[in-house]
Specification:
mainly alpha; Growth Hormone, Chain: A; globular
């Protein structure tokens, strides 16, 4: 996907200026993304678009994110990392103020679709560049630091977006949400990207859409189907929860703020604990199955909270449990998919995992929007608990566990 040899000498490592600039730029871009992720569906609901319209805003965002991710190998080959990251940040940020100009469902969905293209560019280029800027011995720490840079904004910006809708007003919120990714272009512009902006022609012109890729995708589906489906199920629940939980407890903004803060914090914790357990080789402990069970129990608590106006404890507990479980599911599915794909299939496993996350998030928003319209919030969240629990049946299958 990228050149193997840089064309100029640049200081490498997690302490290098370029790596720090990448973290700073990523922090800005993901802060703008996280701030508006719950705010846009709330605007759709508050301006008469209904639950389906609110779901469509997130679904459009994630659909175009996945579409952009599928095109990233060729785009990076043509533009290089800095231009790709810069373009992605601008596409994510510049359209954001347009949310305040029109409340029509079509306008909200259209703006979300454009911003999704930018987010797709950022997610793939940022994580790839984090690895390219460091020597092989620092890749683990590099990916961990990059994960912190893109994860911390969720801790504060997801609940902050709900608070800002009520406290700052739409125009101010969307201006801030757009300005943060645009400002990220400044540190990105100064990244010395190991000169991968200049890629050998034979690599740049390789056609990733040829027969070889078709065969690779067939093999990817065959090898990775079960963990991929488990990841999709968890992402569906996540997308629906982030999109509709604030509305389900309105006007109790404090409840939504607490849950949307606890959720990403618990996800980070769940991924870390799962990763430590995996690295210590905890026998045949079914970590993925356990993670699915914990996530489903959290969704059950969320279901209760959405049906009871005074269920603050249940709501926060549900957010924590789902976050812990889904965090473990993220780590375990990724480890399983890399292991099953083998060295030659690493890029396919990575692409499949990211598509599962982002497509599942969009599907969850759209699916739950439809269910909410007919069954209410409790029925929608209850459905996600069942979907996640059913995915656990796949992981409990004895043949799957032997293959893992």
């Amino acid at each position: 996907m990228i050149a193997d040899v840089p064309t100029q000498s640049v200081a490498l490592g997690i302490r290098s200026a370029s790596f720090r600039l990448l973290l700073l730029g990523s922090l800005g871009s993901f802060s703008g993304f996280g701030l508006l992720l719950p705010a846009v569906p709330l605007r759709a609901l508050n301006t008469g678009s209904g639950e389906v319209g609110a779901g469509l805003t997130t679904a459009a965002l994630m659909l175009t994110t996945v579409a952009a991710q599928l095109l990233m190998p060729r785009l990076i080959a043509r533009l290089g990392y800095r231009w790709t990251l810069g373009l992605g940040s601008l596409l994510l940020g510049l359209p954001a103020p347009l949310y305040a100009l029109s409340s029509a469902t079509e306008a909200l969905v259209g703006v979300s679709a454009v911003r999704g293209l930018g987010f797709g560019l950022i997610t793939v280029a940022g994580s790839a560049l984090a690895v390219e800027l460091v020597p092989g011995g620092q890749r683990g720490r590099a990916t961990a630091l990059y994960g912190v840079a893109v994860g911390v904004p969720q801790l504060f910006c997801l609940p902050g977006g709900v608070w800002a809708v009520e406290s700052l007003g739409s125009l101010t919120l969307f201006l801030i949400g757009g300005l943060l990714p645009v400002m990220a272009v400044v540190p990105i512009a100064f990244i010395r990207s190991v000169a991968y902006d200049a890629i050998p022609r034979e690599r740049a012109t390789a056609d990733p859409a040829g027969a070889g890729q078709a065969m690779s995708w067939v093999r990817t589906v065959r090898l990775l189907g079960v963990p991929w489906l488990v990841m999709v199920a968890g992402a569906i629940a996540f997308g629906g929860l982030v999109t509709f939980f604030p509305a389900s407890v309105a006007p109790r903004t404090s409840v939504a703020t607490a849950v949307l803060f606890a959720l990403p914090l618990a996800m980070i914790t769940g991924r870390w604990v799962s990763g430590v357990a995996t690295d210590r080789a905890v026998g045949n402990t079914p970590l993925l199955t356990v993670g699915v069970g914990v996530a489903a129990s959290g969704l059950a608590a969320i279901t209760v909270a959405s049906a009871r106006p005074d269920a603050f404890t249940s709501a926060v507990l549900g957010g924590v449990l789902f976050g812990l479980g889904f965090g473990a599911v993220q780590n375990q599915t990724l480890v399983l998919m890399f292991g099953r794909a083998g060295r030659s299939g690493v890029q396919w496993a990575s692409a499949a995992w990211n598509i599962a996350y982002d497509a599942g998030t969009g599907i969850g928003a759209l699916l739950l929007g439809t269910v909410v319209a007919y069954q209410g919030y409790a029925g929608a969240f209850g459905l996600t608990a069942i979907v996640v629990l059913l995915s656990g049946v796949l992981t409990a299958n004895r043949s799957f566990r032997r293959a893992s």
